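Quick start: load a record and inspect it. Here is Phosphatase PAP2 family protein:
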Amino acid sequence: MKTRILYISSLMAVSLFAASCKKDITERNQVFEALAPANPDSTAGAWTPILTGSSTFTLALPDAKGTPNYTADLNEIKSYQKNLTSEQKDIIKYWSAGSVLRWNEILRELVAKHNLPPYQNDDGTYPFPSAANPLAYPLFPFSNPPYAARAYAYVSAAQYDALVQTFKFKYTSGYRREAPYANDANVQALVPKSKLPSYPSEDAAVAGATAQMMILLFPGDLDYIQKKVAEEKLYRLMAGANTRSDWDAGENLGKQVANVFLARARADKANLAAGAKDDWTKLETDAKAAGNTPWISLELPHRPPMLPLFPKVTPILMPAADVVAIRPAAPFKEGSAEYQKDMDEVMAMSKNYDRDHERIVAFWADGVGTATPPGHWNSIAAEEFVKHNWSEVRWARNMALLNMAEMDAAIVCWDTKYFYFNPRPTQMVAGIKTLTGIPNFPSYISGHATFSGAAATVLGYLVPERATEFMTMANEAGMSRLYGAIHYRNDCTVGLATGVKVGTYAVNRAKTDGAN
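Running the structure step on this input writes:
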């Protein structure tokens, strides 16, 4: 089997001015074999959905074989297959790798496109992206790590629920219609044949749910998102895998499922995460009152802190109260022996970089213009999942578990960061040379370490034979921030341990969702 060559963004030397400019979507279109799962997971309709367990959805019954409408659908497929162009064959090859896989790639591309901090105004203030006017500068959104983690979670979770609901209909009496190639000998199967009923289309359900979520998250990219939906629809028809009515039913169902997730996303308080000047001032005042040095932005002019109210966002896996319950203990106190030991280590790292540390820092940098640390772990997951020949619905379930953990990791990490408001080593000692950019938010705990601990915990459960490897990678990701001299060791080790705790919520869900 061909496996994907993992694309990892290298350390980018991007000036702040360049970062403020428009960035286009870069499609990488890695080559994979067509998805042909060993186990189609035909019982997935009984798996536990994330948000739609009590929802009721409606779907028209399919036209019966031999009816004029169904005959017209079959004839449409045959007209496409009569003279496929090379471009159309490429579309089939691209999408046949799997809907969840391809939409995950597209989402990473959108995140990378929008992961650009706005440049300052002439008066030294900074503009904020506006969802109400997404095409005005600065473009909405600024898909920084917390925003990206939330985006990955909502898209993946909606895809999973859409497929669970799709499988329920597939095996409901009256809906069990076979694929076009099974109903007409003149329809070619240009993708591996499936024994799953084709109505409603699983690809269409994924596309319908995904597009609705992406349009909320990246409203300025509506045309691009709709173009990809139309392309996937054309693929299913040209490949003989679905009729137009199969697709339309699946897309309709996916949109119904998305509406449940859209309602949650609009009410989860993420729109308030940027806070206001009074919020930033209070954080500084509280830190001083506790006898600590408050974090300050090292950019000139000082940039407002990144999403200080993101801790108020409603978690998707854990109860909101648990965000505070698993908040780690305070960082080492300035002047303590533990603090000085960590600071001395950062200073030593700053003065004596070695090639291996430089490689690790570059590999895990995930800064401006990249898919962010959660996106990096999505790349790692996709690289791994391709090897297992899983069904579309299992892909969706596993990506949802990963990304829900990443969203909650962002909330827990940002809660810790802004509760303690701890300065970075580069604020405390002038002249520290770093190997990577200094993020515009407090030091304790490391976001990279927290995201990575959560991801490795989930992936280790899903692929137990590689659990140790994934955790070693997570530790390396966290330590890369020490090697780059932008975090203390304690930020990294505590962040990793906290991420593991968050990942355990996803593992506990996986153990009871019926997929095993």
